[in-house]
Amino acid sequence: MRIPDWTPALKPQPQDLVDAVLKRRGGTMINLDKALLWSEPLARGWNVYLGAVRTGLPTSRKLRELGICTVALLTGAVYEYKHHAPDFLVAGGVQAELDALNALMKADARLSAQHADLGEVEQLVIQYAAQMTLDVKVSDEVFEALRAHFDTTELVELTSAIATYNMVARFLVALGVSPEEHD
After folding, report:
1. Most CB atoms within 10 A, among 26, 114, 128, 131?
2. Residues 112 and 162 both lie in one domain
3. Sign of CA pseudo-dihedral 148, 111, 90, 55
4. Residue 113 in domain
C-alpha cells in the first residue's frame, strides 16, 4: 500500500467506529479498512453506505457481484476481484461464468458480452458495467435491453452497485491497496 496501514497508535479513532467496521467485517479488518480509517468521516460513511450496497439491496446479489467483478477486471482492481469473485460464487454464480467474464476482458465487452457460458441477462449486466466503467455513458440499446429484465428499483440498485464499485476500484488502485495475505 502506498500509505501506512492504519493503526490506533498512528491515528486514534473512536472505538464505536472501529467496532462498527469490525462488526461489518465479521471481526477482522481488511486492508481496505486500514486505508479508510485514516479518515473518521470517510470510514463512517463508507461503512454504512457500502454495507447497504453489499447486503441491503434486494436486487439479485449474483448480478450485482457480476457487475462488481466486471468493474474490478476492467480497472485492474485485483483487490476488488479477489474479494468479490468468491461472493459471486456464493450468490449462485458458477466458475464457468467467471471464466467467461475473464475471457471477455480480452475483447471489448462494451460492444458485446456474448459467451456460451453466460445467460442473456448476465451478458447485459457485463456490457452495462463495461459501458459505465469505460465510457460512463451507456447506450440506449443496452439500457432498453436491461429495462426488459429489471424494474426501475432493480435498475437503480444494479446501477448503484456498479457505480459504487467504480469508486472503490479507483480508491484501491490509486492507493495501491493489495489483497490480504492468508496463512
Report:
1. 128
2. yes
3. negative
4. yes
